[in-house]
Amino acid sequence: MFSRLLRYLPLGILLFSLGACSDSSTSSDPAAAATLPPPIAGVSPAALDSTIKPPPIPAAPKVQARGYYLIDYLTGQVLAAANENERLEPASLTKLMSAYAVFHALKDGRIKLDDMVNISPYARSQDGSRMFVEVGSRVSVEDLLQGVIVQSGNDATVALAEHVAGSEPVFVDLMNQYAQQLGMTSTHFQNSPGMPAPEHYTTARDIGVLAAALIRDYPEYYKWYSQHEFTWNKITQPNRNGLLYRDPTVDGLKTGHTESAGYCLVSSAKRDDMRLVSVVMGSPSMRAREDASAALLNYGFGFYQTRKLYSANQPLLQLRVWKGESDQATLSVPHDVYATIPRGQESSLSVAADVAEPLIAPIDSAAPIGKLRVILGGAPLGTYPLHVTQEIPEAGFFGKLFDDVMLWME
Question: What is the pTM of this model?
């Protein structure tokens, strides 16, 4: 207590000597004065020179598809798209959401991988691609999931839907709720396998959102999407994703086909530290959907790069704090920050911090107090919240009084 009082002993003298010496109420902008670490090591974010033209980026390849969507997985940045918001039939791409809902039930502990599922007559009666489960048999959740993911079994999908939710209609309602939670704003499901129905639709953009969520939220199950074949009841079926055999960097995700939907393919590939997700919908043939997906992935990897700019909780700024037990705040981002940029344009990348000021304690470390902006050549790439690395409690009476005076002088 005595040591803290000594810190503010000059306050009494100061109060008497100030009088009306200052009437300033403005304050400097600490964020403007602070210097952020350069976003990429060895590359200074210098002012752009309009006379220097960055390397050109060609237009995305023209592919045979009614709609397509190519994004970087880490940043969500769109690298190529066409008719990405047009409502299209998803066919068996629907099973991506069916699997997502089952994974969610596993995570919640409502079901387990070794649960044995009773196969109903309704599940067995499904047309189209099947796992060939038998009525009255008992099949584990794990085997059924591989039947859905690798074999695209409509029967396995319905069996899981009934096991998770009691009936397929209730399960479909769950699917639609998860779609809304993920931001799939132009999607509606009417069944779990993806059979044609009047109100069963999605978009290439929404499927891209779902694919990224599967990879992000359930990495422990993602391995099944690269599995080349699965055998059940002495019947071996290959994975229908032909890119798994053509490109060793491709490790998922799902095919789809009906006569009305055409041929669809969601692909993901990782090369070095960069992962891309490609969605192709409504191609005229299996080969066309594979060629379209390969062309989009090669375009993305060939002309773009994803770079890590800052690590989670890395100190980025130190700013003045008023009326707190500490008079300095260290700011950081709660998650790693990445940027996807055209190759050869690193020097056009810059960052800026926007922080409301003055910073007045108490400051909660869980609440954002500003934002970090990532900019490429004057165009915004992304915005990320800035937090203090440690919460800053409010100072005592004398501390707050002293800072009141200092703020008045600013």
Answer: 0.85
Q: State pLDDT tens for residues 29-87.
A: 444 435 788 877 655 444 444 445 666 789 999 999 999 999 999 999 999 999 999 99
Decide if 260 is catalytic.
no
Reference 386, options 318, 301, 327; nearest CA is 318
Residues of the chain with pLDDT under 70: 1-34, 41-55, 395-410
85-118 pLDDT per residue, tens: 999 999 999 999 999 999 999 999 999 999 999 9
- What angle is formed at CA 260 by the lines to CA 256 and CA 266, rounded to 5 degrees? 25
H or E, element range at 154: helix 154-165
Respond yes or no: is residue 95 known to be catalytic.
yes
The Cα 273–Cα 307 span in angstroms is 9
Q: What are the structural domains, with CATH classification, of the chain? A: 2-50+311-409 (2.60.410.10), 67-302 (3.40.710.10)
Q: Which class for 19: exposed (0-12), middle (13-18), buried (19 or more C-beta within 10 A)?
A: exposed
Q: Which of 98, 129, 152, 278 is catalytic?
A: 152
**Active-site residue, selected from the candidate residues 92, 98, 278, 332:** 92
Q: Confirm whether 152 is a catalytic residue.
A: yes
